[in-house]
Write a structure and sequence with these properties.
Elements (H helix, E strand, L loop, with lengths): L3 E10 L2 E11 L4 E5 L6 H8 L6 E6 L2 E2 L5 H6 L2 E4 L11 H6 L9 H7 L2 H4 L10 H13 L5 E5 L7 H17 L3 E5 L3 H7 L2 E6 L2 E7 L5 H8 L2
Parallel strand pairs: 3-8, 3-9, 6-7, 7-8
Antiparallel strand pairs: 1-2, 1-4, 4-5, 9-10
Length: about 230
């Protein structure tokens, strides 16, 4: 049974339609790469799934219709978001960021600290004094503290130094091996996505134009839709 099901999703910003026919599905424990060139609807799809914008079409999490639920209710059903741009609570400390939206479950301060040890070493440091990479790891830890069934990472390595990028990719791979949660990853690195993703969906102008197993993504398809 799918954990997440999206069929024929459409969404608009005012009079401008951004999504037309988005289709994707994800089973528990799977990792899905959501790909496409810039401006093709990836972040809008994430916002629609999280109920941050209205949409039409089928949208279900664990069989529950999400369309009539506000975003905070969707989060409580088990959807954790690491948004593009990190968006940490800058005036709060590392620990305060982690516990701000924490929910009971396996993911505790200690467990998040095992994934990113520095978080427990500097619990009193304000988020606005952290580097970009540290803020990104804090944002991931904050999402894990909600104990999600589905974790969405929107450009989690964008603009970061190579060593920090690798640390985050290693953490995602560890989550796949050990957590059992489903994960959607938006990123531009085909090499890294290929190492962790079970399936891929490519968006072009707000539509799903290709989906399949990551191993089936040919160079021809990549060149046509991703420009690589």
């Amino acid at each position: 049974m799918n954990l997440l099901t999206v069929e024929d999703m459409a969404a608009s910003y005012g009079a401008s339609q951004a999504l037309f026919e988005v289709k994707l599905s994800l089973a528990p424990g799977e990792v899905l790469a959501l790909m496409g060139r810039n401006g093709m609807g990836k972040t809008t799809t994430v916002r629609a799934i999280c109920r941050l914008i209205n949409s039409t079409g089928r949208l279900e999490l664990a069989g529950r219709n999400l369309h009539k639920l506000p975003s905070h209710r969707v989060a409580r059903l088990g959807l954790g978001l690491v948004p593009e741009g990190r968006r940490c609570f800058n005036n709060l400390t590392v620990r305060e960021n982690l516990v701000a939206a924490a929910r009971p479950g396996d993911w505790t301060l200690r467990k998040v600290g095992a994934l990113f040890p520095w978080l427990l070493e500097r619990p009193g440091q304000r988020a606005d004094s952290l580097s970009g990479g540290e803020q990104q790891m804090l944002a991931i830890g904050r999402a894990l503290m909600t104990n999600p069934r589905l974790l969405i990472l929107d450009e989690a390595t964008e603009g970061l130094a190579p060593l920090i990028r690798q640390e985050i990719w290693s953490a995602i791979a560890r989550l796949k091996r050990e957590s059992g949660m489903a994960i959607i990853v938006i990123d531009k690195s085909l090499h890294e996505l290929g190492g962790i993703s079970d399936h891929a969906v490519i968006l072009e102008r707000g539509k799903t134009v290709w989906q399949g197993r990551m191993a089936e993504l040919s160079p021809e398809i990549s060149h046509k839709y991703l420009g690589v």
